[in-house]
Amino acid sequence: MKIIKFITILSIVSLIYCQTQPINSAQAFEFEPNDIINDNELTDYNSMSLADIQEFLDNQPGVLKSLQTMDTLGNEKTAAEIIHIAALTYIINPKWIIATLQKEQSLITNPTPGQKDLDWAMGYAICDSCSKDDPALQKFKGFGMQIDRATARIRYYFDHPNDFGIKVGYMYNIDGRDVLPFNQATANLFIYTPHLHGNYNFWIIWNRWFSKIFPDGTLVRMSGDAGVWLIQNGKRRPFLTKTALMSRYDSTKIIEISRNDLLRYEIGYPLKYPNYSLLKSPAGIIYLLVNDEKKEIESADVFKTIGYNPEEVMEVTDEELSYYQDGRKITLDSIYPQGALVQDIKSGGVFYVEDGIKYPIIAKEILNNNFKNYKLTKLSSEELDKYVKAANGMKLIDGTLIQIKGDNKVYVISNGQKRWIANESTFNQLGYKWVNIITVSDKVAALHGEGEAIDSLTSNDTQIATIN
Question: Taking the model in full, what pTM does it have?
């Protein structure tokens, strides 16, 4: 093992780690050696069941999908069983074992490895200048032994962090680059592989296979940070104020994610203003902000007639306004420009009305999910007849988790479509909560087209940036 020169202690590591300054979009997903993975990720031993591990291996071209070999007790096991047992025994994520098998010997993707590749599968006990034929190392030889000893060693690093030359909060020069491990997991990776390039390769593999890709409409927060982001159109949009968040979304649905998972996304335009804000352009035009649309208020007379308060108008730049789509202009004929929940007194039918269009709400689950804080206004049938009826009913908002009555499948609504979450492992890895699932009828489900299934057990071939 290389001894890496100690440089200094930085007492402000926690401040650096928790900083919330925006990250340049060009640097949105670059290798960060100070924080390769976090402690929760490395110790998430339940992230994959035995069946999940086998399914993952089955989806890869490597030999391990069908490998039968001896464990440390001399019992014949499958590769998946050996990985699973080591993960449970030492409370280490089986994904770390899988990624390390690939990093060291490419065993996940190589269908015809040599015997030495299998015998030294995890690169355990082999240093740069070591010979694999050294008699002193033969006790560590063998696929089962390699996985057991390597996983036990990673656990030992957690349990004895002061016994090794790389510690959290200390700066080291590794291959010419300053590295300051922010967490024990990252320190462990450098103790195990004291090279920058080796850990970069691990990061590449980990993020290709195990980084989480969240559906549009997901609310996320980085673990240990207060900031909340909206995943939308493949970007992460920060909420700059609490009112901007609370006026649009249910904060109980925020998911905590790792720094790596957050940084996969380029930063999008921030959500700065609360819903239904009044924004004034440099030219003096006043807009009503409704979700991602800006609705021009036609004149001062319209502004006054509708009853808006001049003191609530905020002056903004043309650039800020350019990020919002143009909605329908608000005129004296506009009816409920910012939307309203109304009910037919006679039939009891409920509609969402906006800009003179009424959208039927066909079920209570949509009403309760989408309009928790709305006041219901009762109108006569004659009054409702003045509005144009939309061709389709109101859909569930993005980010809603659903089950169809009589079906065990769980879906998430994203861009108006229902996307099947293919297995329990994927559901848990994405940070969803079972209590947030609502049961809907076939009729409600039919409002939402079928989107692409979400499955964390299939290979994720997302392009990844290069090392700096």
Answer: 0.74
User: Is residue 458 scored above 80 in pLDDT?
Assistant: no
**H helix runs in 124-263, sequence order:** 143-159, 184-192, 196-209, 242-246, 259-263
Comparing 46 with 130, which gets the higher pLDDT?
46
Q: How far is Cα 350 from Cα 74, in angstroms, rounded to an integer?
A: 68
Torsions phi, psi of 354, nearest 5?
A: -150, 130
How far is residue 328 from each of residues 5, 290, 295, 297, 299, measured CA to CA in Å? Answer: 64, 11, 6, 9, 14
* Cβ-contact 101, 108 below 8 angstroms: yes
User: Could you give the angle at the alpha carbon of 50 between the alpha carbons of 47 and 53, nearest 5°?
Assistant: 70
**pLDDT score of 188:** 98
Strands 350-354 and 228-232: unpaired
Is pLDDT of 161 > 50? Answer: yes
User: What whole-number distance in Å separates Cα of residue 428 and Cα of residue 64?
Assistant: 25
In this model, does residue 461 exceed pLDDT 80? no
| Upper half-sphere CA count for residue 86 (Cβ side, 13 Å) | 31
Cα(384)–Cα(375) distance, integer angstroms = 17
Q: If you ran DSSP here, which 8-state letter would residue 458 be given?
A: S
Interval 373-428: pLDDT, tens: 788 999 999 999 988 999 888 999 999 999 999 999 999 999 999 999 998 888 98
End-to-end CA distance of the chain, in Å? 25
Across the range 437-447, mean pLDDT stands at: 96
Of 180, 192, 149, 157, residue with least CA distance to 15: 180
Average pLDDT over residues 115-128: 90
Q: How confident is the model at residue 8 (pLDDT cuts 50, 70, 90)?
A: very low
Residues facing residue 297 across a β-bridge: 330
Q: How many residues does the chain have?
A: 468
The DSSP-derived string for 277-336 is -EEE-TTS-EEEEETTEEEEB--HHHHHHHT--GGGEEE--HHHHHTSEE-PPB-TT-S-
Q: Which two tokens stand for residue 71?
A: 């464990």
SS3 435: helix
> What integer pLDDT is reported at residue 127 of this predicted model?
73
Output the six-digit token pair for 253: 């649905």
Sheet holding 340-344, edge to edge: 376-379, 340-344, 350-354, 357-361, 388-389
